[in-house]
Protein 1
Amino acid sequence: MSLKRLFWLVSIALMSLFLLLAAGLVATQWNTYRNSAEGVPVVRHIQLAMRVMELISFERGPANSVLGANETEMPAARAELEQARLNSDRSITVLLYVLHGYPNRNYPAIAAGIAQLHTGLATARRNIDNLARRPLSARRSDEITDAVNEMIALIGRPLVAITDLAAIATNADPMLRDSISSARLVASLREYAGEIGTQFTAAIATHRPLRSDEIIAISKLTGRAEQMRFILDLQLRSYVSDRQIRAALDAVDISYFSQGLPILNRMLQIGLKSGEYGLSTGALTALYGPKMQSIVLLRDQIMNDAFNGAVRRTEHARQVLIGVIALALLALAVLYLLLRTIHKRVVTPMLESTRLFVALANGELDTAIPAPRGADEISNLFRAMAAFKDSSIARISLEKEREAFITQLQATSDTDFLTGLMNRRAFFTQGQSMFANAQRYQHNLALILMDIDYFKRVNDDHGHQTGDIVLRQVAALCRLMHRKGDIVVRYGGEEFLMLLPNTNLEQAAMVAEKLRIAIASQRVTAVSGAELQLSASFGVAAYANDNTLEALIWRADKALYQAKNSGRNQVKQAL
């Protein structure tokens, strides 16, 4: 085969490979852009579904007013209810229009669920209207409760739609996951807040004390609302620099938790003793309803932030796609010109052999060396290049084996053989660096020292094999609880240590408490078959101008002994 023909074959292969790589890069970036673009409208669709959920929940307020209104109050209450129903119907109509018009194979099923919601809503409204036509004295408490609960049950439909739409959005743009999750949590908080107020409807309408089931429901719903507020604070930490979202969250604290819930608490105290609430269902709705608006504003703020972020990512993906296409075309043109130039100049075997030698010198050891065909200078040069290639491959292979062996030795020396955790020697190597960083920049740093309770008794009563099982199980829990960047160590014997960067004392105590609960819930089967209940004591200390890492460990150890002396199975914080 002539060298000229060989050159063209190599050129065609290089061009094909480049085109495949360029096409792969463009296709990958195109998928990124397409997915990001698909996620943008779905965010708005989720907002529409949340709006439906909000307005149906809001509609319960005027409905409660109608169920508790007398003949004098009824006209105004009825007008307010009709307006609320009109708003709910409009929101459902808009959502159905969007779901039917958007090209996604999952949307028809979501639209069917919303259509069923509309049907169920019509049935619930008829029941409310039938009750409202009676005189107030003829409306039985259980009938009012059933009508209210029928409206509450409808919330499940838009919630399912929100969940399905959220799955579609996060599948297209995973960066939306946290924002949508937080917004869904806020929407659920709004629903719980509405349900708490709804529990008073039947009692106020019939002027009776609260029943035990209503009291229990109010307590549960209030507890869930408080729990959601705590979870929201954790989830929204990523927005700590976003003043608008932090302000909206603070507004929820002030408007709802500090002003709205106390209104219902006063009603609860009255309902525990008598049925003389001093106001009608409509008055309660007018007083309590506006306090929930801050929750809706927080939800909208989060969703708007998610939408704006999705738009920014889509625009960035579009610009990157254009850049990748432009660079691919430019590189293709450069490659074509380069090959054409080489074609004109590569006319002798010496130039071809020179190209091969340069490729080997640059480390391209997968370059094929032509087999020598004679004893001339070119053949001798090929033999020399083949020998150079073989020696380079052998040298690289030896270097890789040596590096792998060193890595293996390093891992073995740094790892506790029984638990697979970092050992004490390796901890002081890495921990000193982390402590020095915290000391230099005054960053938060916390240390948890844990000791398995009565571990000696386990070894004495059930043998060291059972003790090893206990150590491995506790090590697995420690490994499960730690975050990326934390250091988890078997410190010695039955002692374990966790070093947590960027963590204050309270946060570290929460981690220790979670781990304590996880260990206390474990059951270990001894070699003898006996079931063992585990527990552990914890000492927690946070960096506070300690001079050395050993001083920080000493404070945690002191807190650990306080935990042991106080009865074990508990967490103590160093002062």
Protein 2
Amino acid sequence: MNTMRPSFSVHDLYLHQKITELHCASGPDLVACTVRSVDREQDGYVSCIWAYALDGSGARQMTRGPGLDQSPRWSPGGERLAFLSGRAGGSPQVYSMPRDGGEARQIGRFDESVTQLRWMPHGRALVVCSAVRVDPELRGRPSSAPPPERKPSAPEIAWRLPYKEDGIGYLLQRQIHLFSLDAESGEHTQLSRGAFDVMAFDISADSDKIAYSRSREGRFAHATDLWVCDIEGREHRQLTREHAIVMQPVWSPDGRFIAFSGAREDGDAEPKLWLLDTTTDEVRMLGDDSLDVADPESLHWTRDGAAIVFVRAWRGCHQVVSIAVPSGELTVIVDRQRQLGAFGITDRHLAYSIEHPSLPSELWSSAADGRNERQVSDLNAWWKERSPIEAEIRSFEVPDGRGGTETIEGWLLHAQGAEGPRPLLDDMHGGPASYALLDFDTNVFWQVLCARGWSVLALNAVGSSSYGREFCQRLAGHWGEYDLPQHIAAIEQLQREGIADDRVVSSGKSYGGYLSAWATGHTSLFRAAVVMAPVGNIETHYGTSDGGYYADPYYVASAPRFDRALARALSPLHHIEKSRTPTLFLQGKEDERCPKCQSEELFVSLARAGDTPTELILYPGEYHGFLGTGAPSCREDAATRIVDWLVRYSDQPSEPPEPARSEEAAGQAEPNRERAEEPEPSFAQK
């Protein structure tokens, strides 16, 4: 007898366990994974570390908390596991435990949070990054006096940019520096000093040098450069000067090369692979400008130093590829229609988690050549009980914004076996120099709507990365103007094919929130909209976002200057009063990436313009990532409100936007577009 499987619900977010990071040990062929799960009683999260044999022969839960155990790192040879934990109360500190289990031991004690750790290749010590308290009143000047204690009410002086960061808040009361840490005694020594932050680092195979990415000193500190020092913290030397961003550096086994992903231009969200020759200090791109590194921490040298294995973003999906050094010859190892989360390698295996609407977060492995793929973990057995969701990549013929047409791609989701015209959610991705991301934690409402008989379209329209440099950069200076017509054309194609009916709605977060809000003032296609953490007013975003001051000039293709007239014309706020689309605004109240004023300006303007249904929901204590990493109760509330709002208004026919109030008013706002015709690098991924 057939039994009906239960459908996905919003409450499934409390069941889902997610692999957030992993680290591999080649000798024993083990992988240590950080597994995050929801603590419903505390309305928070716990994370524990699991160890898996990559041949599938066994699994061991290494830690059980309490709190957040994270950043696992095997010692050379894999005999010990180091990790970060706040289990003793207060800030994350370094712990170590034997591979076969047992009690974890704290190593040393830092005054502030430890943020990263690496074993030295000789295995007797580690190098870590830790925060160091400083007095912001000194404006970056060194001082031998200890910084004064700061009360929560202490004034926050801003003497440089950036002075704040989403998810962190005020930055200038601390710096992040390198320390050496003896694995037995816990004694530690500071290796770097100055008014900068160390963002990432790696240690040479001979344990003699540290390569590190650090922010710049001075008034503009958002850019990062590659530096090197000896293991004693002496002879610090800058290696790159022409890059705006340098991400995780990785030494070659022989110490000759340092590989890193990064970009030359401020706001360029398509990181390329770069190779620095330490014998000459020459830096060159490895591969061509179509090679997008999906995860800067996925770079791994092969043991012989002949190649780098990493995760590449390609046409909205992820490939595992190998690139030969120094020739740049590219070999695709794993290529399937899906995305990857955490990634690592051993001499014999690849290890990764998979992101796909039809699959939960689990650990998978394959042979080093990509063959014999197998699922290793079974953290989310409950998923098998749900009615299956299918996801396929579809192609759409759309206008290219320049008088012609082109073919673009997108994901189409629906319940298995769904037939006939049905309601459609067009979920617009952030960035815009990103692509539709498939993780369940952020998009639980996709599965819920599909279970209710809907389809979900996640389109990679013009401006998306992973489809080539020209396709991504073409949108600069034409936000909304080039990509909204592509969304409309794709939806109309699905309607002609009998997949979608007239019940079409939209949603989006960050840049997706921008585009969803823009659409409400330009088309009557969408019967309802959910706008989340948007860029609503580019002109005010420039001065209120943690990255707006260097990214927004690229939004409007006028860098290095900021074209305020074009920013106003391209802002949803300039058009929102024409909207007749019922619109729900969702916003983290402490968001510093797209601050709450962006939603507030849109909501107030729409509410005052007429009787169009609209609501604003602010989530206290939440940041830009509230939808996927916010408090579980916030995520539940947001997903529930999204589904309820879209379902409620999808049955009501839409009204066309009102025309501009006067030709004169429209003319006054029309900017000079001479500079906007040349594509500029797009802004950093939101």
Protein 3
Amino acid sequence: MLPFGVEQLAEAQERVVENAGCAGADGVTVEMFARRSAKVLPELLDRVARGAYRPFPLLEIQVEKKPGSDKIRRLLVPAVRDRVLQTAVARHLSHSFEEEFLECSFGYRPGRSVDRAIARIRKCHELGYRYVVDADVQSYFDNVEHKRLLALLGERPLGEAVHGLLRQWVKAQVWNGSKVTPLRAGVPQGSPISPLLANFYLEDFDRELEKSGRKLVRYADDFLVLAQTPDEAHQALLETETLLAAAHLKVNEEKTHIVDFDHGFRFLGALFLGEAIWVPWKFEKRAKGRIRFMARPMPAALRTPYELAPPKSSMELALERADLPRPEPVAAKGRSEGVAFLYLTEQGSILRKAGDRLLVEREDEVLLDLPYHKLEHVLLLGNVQVTTQAMGELLEKGVTMSLFSRQGTYRGALSPPRGKNIDLRIAQFERWRDHGAAVEIAKAIVAAKIANGVLTLERYRRQADPDDDFADRQKALAASAEGTAAAAEITALDGMEGAAAKEYFALLMRFNKSEFEWKGRQKHPPPDPLNALLSLGYSFLMNELAALLEGMGLDPFLGFLHQVDYGRPSLALDVMEPFRHPVVDRLTLTLVNRKMMEAQDFRAGPGGAGMYLEPKAFRRFLNEWERWMLAKPAKGTCFRECLRTEAEKLCAALRDGAGFAPWRWTEDAEPEGGCNTSSVTT
């Protein structure tokens, strides 16, 4: 079924009437069609739904490119019926395609005029771009390769009805007044769907050129690439030729050359000379070329198959679909494949959807291009925007989007609909209401946290060989883990956990060899670099667990050790406790002891409150965080897989009414590889 109805077809017909135009190969004029539209439009939808629709051949018209010129432009005009349907489909697709097209493209797009293209050129000139590759694609509309175009369209989730129509319109037939011939290549000038397809075909060209740092201004097949030096302009021309060749196109050598603003050049009818821009068509009426040839309408006997085409068989439909080969994906420059975690830190950047990929753009430059089919989590830090299309696609694909301040303070998350496992959430609530069962889970969590802290200290102790006092205090800390078994209330466990944490940090910071002084664990906001790194790591850990738990169907706000409070993801904090010391604390000491984070990497917050990482240091932290989370021991799994396993284990314990045994860290060999997930930071 088509994703629109008679009402949308009627709106499309109004647009066709406004544009006027001649009759198509069937001889039906716009006025004739309008008089019968009340009957014809529902029949047209029904014919498409039954697979009985077949477009008329395109009517060939030849007009002068310029008044008095010997050069001819070939127009191929659909029948009015087909123009209405193409207009409706184009308007439907425009909602999604327009969101994906880049800012550098101006032709045939709503709200993007020649004036805006000229304004972009002016802006580039003001920024120091003095040299220009003035280029033209050779016979672009006639040379678009059908096989590649259909393959690109086939990758889009447009629905089989729309795909079927696009296949017929791309692989069209042409009526020249005497015979019908197939259209072997190109998108016909004169069809309402062609401008959209023409921009779509060059989408990869736009993206790759912009990613390389070039300033592109494209209006259909005419475009400029602006550069700051002659060498950059020559390199841009070579890159342009390479990218067009990848699309099975080539530049028009007669119309392509390198120019500069000082000597002047023309583009889109405007003259650029130094600082001045002269647009003569603003004041002069441009004459149109005469029609040199126009095919007569098809005889009635030839029109019959297109008017009364029978429904297509399943075999015919299968053969049509088989004509859509999809190219093997190639990892292009600047692309990242198979990313699970995406961190966006570039201030002022925009995350947008482009087909089955996500683009990160800033000031018309593509910073990142990656597929989202393996994406699990997107983290936005600071002033990063997301288009509604990208947001909707992430939600539809089950990808959580978490928002942090620029300094890494967690603000909240946009999550897909919670898991459908209502029985699991009921089991969670019942366990929480059962005071004795809730206390047992809380005791297991505190005991595991203390035990993992003791093992963390033991690892450092063997490397540094501290005094006997350290060993005695470490043994006392280990004994406190066993003492949790006697606790009968959550408040008692809170006291034990707090005392153990204070003693743990007092011992841990003996191994702090950095320039930073430790004055005790403090937060909200963290007053020093060590506390800032700890808080940042805990925030990422908690956020990742909250997303995992919610995705599996649990309520991350209903915990057992951490009491319920407004806005607090208590269950995520519960599950996080055993991971704090082996994961975050060890990473923090590693970064400062190896001088990967130094005093110049930090700055005070607004009004002197808190301590935060500088932007470059923040990116460095994110890269190290991901490396740390994905490092895989010789025995066991990486920390990220451990988080996932822990969430699954909790679900099983709640579902089955069994006891929960939280994660215990084991001392295996040093990490030697990574897990099967990856991340990108930009």
Protein 4
Amino acid sequence: MTRLLLALFFVLFSISLQAVESARPKVGLVLSGGAARGLAHIGVLKALEEQGVKIDAIAGTSMGAVIGGLYASGYKIDELEKLALAIDWQQALSDSPPRKDIPFRRKQDDYDFLVKQRLSFRDDGSLGLPLGVIQGQNLALMLESLLAHTSDTRDFDKLPIPFRAVATDIASGEKVVFSSGHLPRVIRASMSIPAVFAPVELDGRLLVDGGMVDNIPLDVAREMGVDVAIVVDIGTPLQSRKQLATVVDVLNQSITLMTRRNSEEQLAALSGDDILIQPPLASFGVTDFGRAKEMIDAGYRATRILDTRLGALRAVDSNDTQLSDARSPNQRTPVITAIKVENDSKVSDDVIRYYIRQPVGERLDMGRLQTDMGTLYGLDYFERVQYRVVHKGPDNTLVINARGRRSGTDYLRLGLNLSDDLRGDSAFNLGASYRVNGINKLGGEWLSRVQIGDQQELYSEFYQPLDTGSRFFVAPYLKAQAQNVEATLDNDPIAEYRLERYGFGLNLGRQIANNGELRFGVGQAWGRADVRIGDADLPSLSFSEGFLEAKYSFDTLDNVYFPHDGEDIGLTVRQYEPGLGSDQRYRQWEFKLDKVLSHGPNTWVLGGLYGRTLDDAEVVTSSFLLGGARQLSGFRQDSVSGQNINLMRAIYYRRLTPRSYLPLDFPLYGGASLERGRAWNNDNEFDSGYINAASVFLGFDTPLGPLNFTYGINDANEKAVYLNLGQSF
């Protein structure tokens, strides 16, 4: 009898709980857009969970779709907080992968003294312009990695919390509400700020940020059948007349006007039962990702103020088995049973497959996959490289989707450097390179480079990979050079020669992961050296060269212009042989090293170079060059020559401007260098002795490339001013 009474008690208690739960109003959460300000949504969610408020549906726009989509898919609040604080937002909101992930061949492009920005051309020769400043490559990869566990969920009502995202059809101006689809792609579409992010193509539509038509999607939540809406408005306030000082300010204000207008329409539709949360975010900008913790706290405090009203929405039992299961980390890393490639680019599927190191039969390795996708994108053939996991029964197929770059894969880059010794002697060089990509399915390319000025150069190389991973390659080349070389006797310049050299060669090589390259080559050259300045009776020279060459390069710098970490190593060894057509037999080698160390905004570059000519040879044709900013500062560019050189240097610089969390980050650096070097010839008629030099400089990382203003002096009583757009060190 006792057991019967206990059973009856539990049945009645369960029925009463269900009755209370059914009487609880269905609660919808509406999360508005506002870029970085949207991180306040995390604080709101944290406070709602502490109050025991169960969310039955979520509708979000732009950043509201990001936070809402992650939460609806099962992320815990503490996970969202950690993500907001740990994500490298500058990297996420750019297209370039970390430089360490870029193939070594593409890293070499940075050393052509050229500026970082480039123009792309299509196969028909027309200029290719993108649909947005940012293609969203890294952002899309981040969303895919965070939401890999939702790949088999096409109906958003089947997520742990039903979800909707809003986007805008840029062609028609219509609002597009997503209740199904590939969740990462849908969220990416919802936050595509026009002109900033490239639009997303989905279901035949070209989609941009949903805030253009519905920044506070209260109406969408109503259509999901909610009884009470909790609306979070983090919209950007309008700037005052005095604050509108630049074209960027006006553009931002224009977007804000559009979003505020439709936001006010939605806010006017709030009922008496709805709850409006407006975190105090007036002091936060749309790019203040670095202040994530403060914005999360602002959202949290603004919500806790409403504890009394929110208490009425508290669920009797907030335990949700579906939500708990979804929040298990193992659910987000499925075991991959197959890999498939979708590709419409110029390179073959095998090339793409080579770079994907995910083992079949093992759990998805997110970190390694992110690196692999960065390497693929760094090949410069793709508008985007994305992935998804397709679940079918027990099978999980990793699908790699590579879309060819519609704006073209042929690139033009420009560069400029100037120097003046403050004594009326100036030097300049203007250069350009043009690279034709995708000549064949293995990724063959043709690079041509031209430079005019004090150093004239024409270089053309055909680079042909011999396997799908470009591990082995062959690279024939043609080269023509003209430059000034000083002849010195007893440490006094007696003449300046104009040295011209023409030649060709063939290299066989091996790339070493993404960091290095080893080349073996043979070359031949002919040339002439005529007196340009000095005694006209000095002899002119004609010469012939034939040589064997080995070259090793290693590069782990995180940024070639103003690095903060890594090292750059180069070693070149040449053997000139009469049997190959050389007038003289002699050996040369050159070694270069730069090691970068940083602490906070402070960076040190330690290193130098050493060049030796080991046998007797004609001085003019076998000399190395020094001189220029941070290359024995105070001397003109390449004005110090000798058969043997060494240079030791220590460079310090500090970032003077705060970091921006958008790609439009143009930092200003201030720095100085200390240098010590020497140049000498083998016959001992010239030996500069050790020269101490120093410089101070300002460096500005502009949209075109790094712009450096340098003033250098040395103890040889030389001083100079340098202006350089392009290579910094």
